[in-house]
Design goal:
By secondary structure, this protein is an alpha/beta fold. It contains 14 helices and 16 strands.
C-alpha cells in the first residue's frame, strides 16, 4: 500500500508531506516522499539544490533515484536536513535531482512509479507558489515548484496537485492564489501536527511551521524571511485544497517554459527570462556576502536587548508572531546559532513560545 508524495519545493514541503500522509492516509509511515535536498543558506551554505554526488551513504532505488537514509551525510561544506528527517520520521525520503531539468525529474518519477506501483501520487506545495504566473513582484523562489509541476504533468500516471496553507510561504498572498484553488479536502487539526511536532522543534521551515501553528489555532500576523514578509494566519491557513493540474500548468509560465529542459542551467536561464531572476543567483550572491561577514558571538544580554528593540518595531507593524529563522537573521546571527538562540529565548521567556513560533505580545511586558 505504498503512496508517493512529491514535495514540490523541497525543504519544509517534505515535512508537510509527512503531516499530509498521516492526516489523509493514516500513520503507517508507508509513503515515499520525493523531495529536493534544497535547504536555505542557514542550513546549507552551498547555493542551489544538492545532487546525489553531494552525499555519502545514499541507497539506490532505481537507475536515477536514490533514497536518503538516516546514515547518509552531505559532503562538507554542503548541508541537508534530509538525513535527520529520515532518522526521525518513518517515511522513505527519495532525492529529486533537478540537474537534468524537468525531463530528468519526470524520468525519476516514472522510474519510482514503475518500482512502487503506488496507490496514489500527490504533488504537495505549502503556500501555493506553484500557482504563480512568474511576474509577481513578491515571488522569490519559483524554480523548484516549476520543475516539479512540469515533471508531474509529463508522467504517465494520475497525479493530484494539493496546496496546503494558501499564502503561508510569504511570496504569494492567499488572495493571489484563491481563484486557482479547487475544493477544500481537509483542514489540518492539532492532532494532524503530532507526527511532526518534534521535527518542527528544529527544522527551519517557516511555511510548514506556520501551517502547523495555524492548525493548532494560532492567529495573527507572522513576520518571516530575511525580507521581513508579513503573513496573516487566519482560519483559512490550515486548509488543504486540490488544484487542477492542467490549470496550474496553464497559469505557471515558468513551468511551461521548463517542460523540455534537460539541465538545471537551462531551467535557470528560463527563470531569468520569465521571472527576471534566478533564485540560485540570489543564493550565490548572498553566500558570497555571508562568507565575508565576521562571526558574531551569541551574548545573552545583548541578544535579549536587541530582541526587545526588534519586537518594539515589529509591534508597530502589526506583527504578532515570528519564526526563529527570521530572528536569527534580524539579530545578525548565523545559521549555526539558530538552535542556541531558540534555546536561549525559550529559557528566558517561555511564555512567548507558541510552538513552533515566537509570540510578540501587543504590549511590552
Amino acid at each position: 500500500m505504498t503512496r508517493l508524495i512529491v514535495a514540490a519545493g523541497g525543504g519544509g514541503d517534505a515535512v508537510a508531506a509527512a503531516m499530509l500522509d498521516a492526516a489523509l492516509y493514516g500513520d503507517d509511515g508507508q509513503a515515499v516522499i520525493l523531495t529536493y535536498a534544497w535547504d536555505r543558506l542557514l542550513v546549507d551554505p552551498v547555493p542551489g539544490p544538492r545532487a546525489p554526488s553531494d552525499f555519502t551513504g545514499l541507497r539506490q532505488l532505481t537507475k536515477t533515484v536514490w533514497s536518503v537514509p538516516a546514515a547518509a551525510r552531505p559532503i562538507v561544506p554542503a548541508g541537508s536536513t534530509l538525513p535527520r528527517l529520515a532518522a526521525e520520521l518513518p517515511h522513505t525520503f527519495a532525492l529529486i535531482d533537478p540537474h537534468h531539468g524537468a525531463e530528468g525529474v519526470a524520468r525519476q518519477l516514472e522510474e519510482l512509479i514503475a518500482l512502487l506501483a503506488p496507490t496514489s501520487v500527490d504533488l504537495l506545495d505549502v503556500g501555493g507558489d506553484i500557482l504563480a504566473r512568474g511576474d509577481e513582484p513578491t515571488l522569490k523562489s519559483p524554480l523548484g515548484d516549476a520543475l516539479t509541476l512540469a515533471a508531474c504533468c509529463q508522467v504517465n500516471a494520475p497525479v493530484r496537485l494539493l496546496v496546503a496553507g494558501p499564502g503561508l510561504d510569504g511570496e504569494l498572498s492567499a488572495e493571489d492564489v484563491r481563484s486557482a484553488l479547487g475544493h477544500l479536502i481537509h483542514t489540518f487539526s492539532p492532532k494532524d501536527t503530532e507526527p511532526v511536532s518534534d521535527v518542527l522543534e528544529w527544522h527551519p521551515s517557516e511555511a510548514t511551521g506556520m501551517l502547523a501553528a495555524a492548525a493548532r489555532g494560532t492567529r495573527g500576523v507572522c513576520e518571516v524571511r530575511d525580507a521581513g514578509l508579513l503573513v496573516p494566519l487566519t482560519d483559512d491557513s490550515p486548509g488543504l485544497h486540490e488544484v487542477d493540474m492542467d490549470d496550474a500548468l496553464h497559469r505557471n509560465e515558468l513551468a511551461r517554459a521548463v517542460l523540455s529542459t534537460t539541465s538545471l542551467d537551462e531551467a535557470e536561464a528560463h527563470s531569468r527570462e520569465v521571472c527576471g531572476y534566478s533564485e540560485i543567483d540570489y543564493e550565490r550572491n548572498k553566500a558570497a556576502w555571508l562568507k565575508d561577514q565576521p562571526a558574531v558571538k551569541l551574548d545573552p544580554d545583548a541578544v535579549l536587548s536587541e530582541l526587545n528593540a526588534f519586537e518594539d518595531e515589529a509591534r508597530r507593524r502589526g506583527v504578532t508572531h515570528t519564526t526563529f529563522r527570521h530572528l536569527t537573521e534580524v539579530l545578525n546571527l548565523n545559521g549555526t546559532q539558530r538552535d542556541d538562540l531558540r534555546q536561549l529565548l525559550i529559557s528566558a521567556r517561555p511564555e512567548r513560545y507558541c510552538p513552533p513560533l515566537w509570540t510578540i505580545p501587543a504590549e511590552t511586558e
